[in-house]
């Protein structure tokens, strides 16, 4: 019966754009607490992208949140622009102590979630903090984490660190090449950007796409290389 109640609650939200009131949540939250673990996680994931207050209340009902639950809440904070809250949650998850259970250790997904938030706010200090954590815990070898670092450093304007991370990637795809070319071009380094563009096209490692050519044109525009762009 409880699983059916949760199913109907989710269906009602999806089909009627229903926003739960206090009375509804007072009925649903205890069901989440008694229900199978995945049911609460599913509802938390759903609300973390729109109703963080509801997601937090569901999260509070979980006795010992695991890494999936923490990452869901952290993602919700970043998506809604509450990056400081996301970092606070990361600190809380590591300090969690209950009945002798150690805190939860951030994983690659946690870092991949935090880095776009740093990029949005151009919070390079926060981004470096995440990078150092990745190095200390050998998560900087994860391709997805390294790609997120490339994007973050590009948006924060730290070209030296961007290039250092880029050069460490085991393989380069079109997206990472585009980020590199665009970053150099946006910061007035058109010559370097076009050299990277030529290297990309000559290497055959990744195929240029529309974004690649836009990045090259931006590089020419920002560096006064009009003839090169033509």
From TrEMBL:
<keyword id="KW-0809">Transit peptide</keyword>
<feature type="repeat" description="PPR">
    <location>
        <begin position="173"/>
        <end position="207"/>
    </location>
</feature>
<feature type="repeat" description="PPR">
    <location>
        <begin position="66"/>
        <end position="96"/>
    </location>
</feature>
<dbReference type="Pfam" id="PF13041">
    <property type="entry name" value="PPR_2"/>
</dbReference>
<dbReference type="InterPro" id="IPR046960">
    <property type="entry name" value="PPR_At4g14850-like_plant"/>
</dbReference>
<dbReference type="InterPro" id="IPR002885">
    <property type="entry name" value="PPR_rpt"/>
</dbReference>
<dbReference type="Pfam" id="PF01535">
    <property type="entry name" value="PPR"/>
</dbReference>
<dbReference type="GO" id="GO:0003723">
    <property type="term" value="F:RNA binding"/>
</dbReference>
<dbReference type="InterPro" id="IPR011990">
    <property type="entry name" value="TPR-like_helical_dom_sf"/>
</dbReference>
<keyword id="KW-0677">Repeat</keyword>
<dbReference type="GO" id="GO:0009451">
    <property type="term" value="P:RNA modification"/>
</dbReference>
<protein>
    <recommendedName>
        <fullName>Pentatricopeptide repeat-containing protein</fullName>
    </recommendedName>
</protein>
